[in-house]
Design brief:
By secondary structure, the protein is of the alpha/beta class. It has one domain: Aldolase class I (TIM Barrel, Alpha-Beta Barrel), CATH 3.20.20. The protein has a nine-stranded parallel beta sheet. Helix 7 links the parallel strand 4 and strand 5.
Length: 271
């Protein structure tokens, strides 16, 4: 059982929902990332999605694009992201870390070297936005052999075949994109998400996390009523932008703490 799978198993036994925040590594500076990661854990995060900044994203809205631009301008790279994970592991061996990004930096490093170095750094999952599952069998197998979960996206437009492919090659959890837009959009359709999740669970056989459009404790709680995990990113980065580097960890911890409290207020046994 992987670290991510163990975390979901524990949460299920406690009848609690997973909280999965996202931040971009290197934003607002490389030195700020570790304090922010620790603030997320202190606030109640169960898993951290750590964004690998990339210059030409496809799914990221303007907020996360700005974060990537700041990180890249500060010299952040995939190699440095792995270094941050390794440093985080010196104080926290338990919180699962998922790298989320795009194929180009991985292929520039070399897939075999990336997997080996990610495992050595303490990475627990990898989500590559532009690796479709039907073309990722070998990559997913290499990750699993290194005890890293390959995590895939599903969307409202995903076909039954794509869901089956994700179920075959993925592990850990599924990231369900709640809308046909980019990160940070504000038009979350709770009813549509509720209608889709049962079929996704049946097809993939693993926990379903929902992201895109979650802005606060109230919207997180509504998603927590129907999903296994809540993923929130753009709203955290907005808080970092407003707070500035010095105050960002305190403000982020408070935001995550509010969402954690809302999720933990759900009745036990919520679907």
């Amino acid at each position: 059982m992987s670290k991510i799978q163990a975390r979901f198993a524990r949460l299920q036994s406690e009848r609690r929902k997973a909280l999965i925040p996202f931040i971009t590594a290197g934003d607002p500076s490389p030195a700020a990332t570790l304090p922010l990661m620790r603030a997320l854990v202190d606030g109640g995060a169960d898993i951290i999605e750590l964004g690998v900044p990339f210059s030409d994203p496809m799914a990221d809205g303007p907020t996360i694009q700005r974060a990537s631009e700041r990180a890249l301008a500060a010299g952040m790279s995939l190699r440095r992201v792995l270094g941050i994970v390794s440093e985080f592991r010196q104080q926290d061996a338990d919180t699962p870390i998922v790298l989320m990004g795009y194929a180009n930096p991985i292929e520039a490093m070399g897939i075999e070297r990336f997997v080996d170095d990610a495992a050595a750094a303490g990475v627990d999952g990898v989500l590559v936005v532009d690796y479709p599952p039907q073309e990722s069998e070998a990559f997913a197998a290499r990750l699993k052999a290194a005890a890293i979960d390959p995590i895939f996206l599903l969307a409202p437009t995903s076909t039954e075949q794509r869901m089956r492919d994700v179920g075959r090659f993925g592990s850990g959890y599924i990231y369900y994109v709640s809308l046909t837009g980019v990160t940070g959009a504000g038009h979350l359709d709770h009813g549509q998400v509720a209608a889709r999740i049962p079929a996704i669970r049946e097809a993939v056989g693993m926990p379903v996390g929902v992201g895109f459009g979650i802005r606060d404790a109230a919207s997180a709680k509504r998603i927590g009523e129907i999903a296994d995990a809540v993923v929130i990113g753009s709203r955290i980065i907005e808080e970092i932008e407003r707070a500035g580097e010095a105050d960002a960890p305190v403000r982020v911890r408070a935001l995550i703490g509010d969402i954690r409290e809302a999720l933990d207020s759900l009745p036990q046994g919520t679907a």
